[in-house]
Amino acid sequence: MMISSLWIFLGLSLTPVAFALNNGVGLTPAMGWNPYNAFLCTTTETQYRAAAQSLISLGLSTLGYKYVNLDCGWQGKTRNSTGGFTWDTSTIPSGIPALSTFVHNLGLKFGVYSDGGVFACDFVGGTAHYLGSLGHETSDANSFASWGADYLKYDNCYAVNSTDFVDFNPPISTHYTAMRDALAATKRPIVFSICEWGVQDPARWPASTVGNSNDIGPPVSWDNLFRIINQLVPITQFAGPGAFNDLDMLEVGNAGLTAAEQQTHFAFWAAAKSPLIISTDLTSPSTQTLNILKNTRIIALNQDSLGKSISFKRRYTNDHDVWAGPLADGSTAAVIINWQNSSRSLTFNLADVSFSSATATDLITGTSVGKLTTSYTATVAAHGSIVLKLSGGVAAPAPTFTFYNAAASTNTLAGGANTRTVSSSVTVVGFVGNGGTLTINNVDGGAAGGTKTLSIDYINGDFVFGNTDCSNCRNAFISVNGGAAVQVQMPISAQSWDILFSGYLVSLSGFKAGKTNTITVSNPNAFAPDFYRIGVSV
Ligand SMILES: *[C@@H]1O[C@H](CO)[C@@H](O)[C@H](O)[C@H]1NC(C)=O
Ligand SMILES: *[C@@H]1O[C@H](CO)[C@@H](O)[C@H](O)[C@H]1NC(C)=O
Ligand SMILES: *[C@@H]1O[C@H](CO)[C@@H](O)[C@H](O)[C@H]1NC(C)=O
Description:
- Its main location: secreted.
- Residues 1-20 form the signal peptide.
- This protein is α+β, with helices and mostly antiparallel strands and 538 residues long.
- The protein has helices at 5-10, 36-39, 45-57, 96-105, 137-146, 173-186, 222-232, 259-271, 287-293, 296-303; strands at 17-19, 31-33, 67-69, 109-115, 151-155, 191-194, 276-278, 311-316, 320-326, 332-338, 344-349, 355-362, 368-373, 375-380, 385-395, 401-405, 412-414, 418-421, 427-430, 437-443, 450-459, 473-480, 486-491, 501-511, 517-522, 530-537.
- It has 10 helices and 26 strands.
């Protein structure tokens, strides 16, 4: 996705998508190279050719990195006399068909880039006016196929009209279905990469459509990763062979992330089944860059035939996240991210992935960790991660909860907190925070009180494209019996305010025996999510 420099400084971010075409390609996430994060819209034919040769000479193509994809800046600005798509002959002097042949002759695959709007995106504030494909879908799809394109990245600028460069609420799903159908009609298997920026929640588009993502940069920072990881929380279930959530192109090898952050980025993207599109200058990669990109165990995680994404299991706010998901051989992949800003000893509780014991392999190092019981503790770098393959997992006993509806009349709503009807079966309490508080009364602390696990069902539709204090999340501060409030960072539950996240877990102490406990939710300086119910472990 292409954004103007203005956007970058505003910190806005966009979202590409992989779009199911049922054409036999895209059954596992695409792997390849795209220039954008390194060269923006000024990539030359020489650089495209060099990148293709680097994929071969560096041994990347044999690991699966096959696609050499164009991004913005290659296109012409006017169509030819018969209305055909053209290229900029100063940028691509030998022409697109010759470049495509060059790439194919190396045994690689060739990707083109266009836009579903009137003009394409650019990096000069929308003034370049490169060709877009709106209204020319059939003819352009035929041109791309005739050039031997194997992949189309389809952007979203000028979606509304010829003056509105970037619109965050364009009526555009038909732009994507029109091109999807035009590509299908060519009969050439072409991966359709929807660069829709996530603005219309394309992961939820009907009928075997899509997955989703978000502009990672440039420039990239650790905060961008936090934003994208939160954005993924409500849509992991949509990933599957043929349609994957696209978390955006890789920043491995680029300035802005530490080595540990790049490793976490790569492993998380892989385990979430995002396309792995290298987007750095491959003419002089560091050993560190190549070590990350060439990790065959992490690549295998990405290319696993089951195609299921890891999903959000548990957040220990400001400390670590636990994500996990199934693999084709029946094992489980787990990714534990260290949110702390320093190297530390991190304990992963197996119960957070519903196991009491399992046999583990560290997929970053390849080391067998052996049989784990209850937990695993390792030293993890600042913003580093633990990536495990867990086999032979023994199920942990599932906790049971007593649920308290937030909107129950026995609760205390104060300072503006109010009920909101979501559906015939769900009423939530909103306007919690900024003075509003929700207090759940008469909570049962059981015979002993002490520490309890809470399981929270909530709605948070506060999605963003730029970094905020809590990007694609909201903070709640929860206190038991008036004790110290504990910060709980809750990711979005959807990109709308009508879909629940169920089962956000947090452990809190301070419960007394018996049924006179209170749980109070607040936020002194921002809004918390809307709460449906809170379960307290029995
Ligand atoms: C116009 O462009 C299309 C697509 O590249 C091509 O097939 C056609 O031959 C071109 N027409 C002329 C007159 O150059
Ligand atoms: C283009 O779309 C924008 C946003 O909807 C609108 O404000 C503007 O008036 C439109 N311009 C034209 C020429 O239609
Ligand atoms: C890490 O450092 C940043 C920048 O100082 C700070 O905003 C953030 O809260 C810190 N994170 C943790 C988990 O301490």
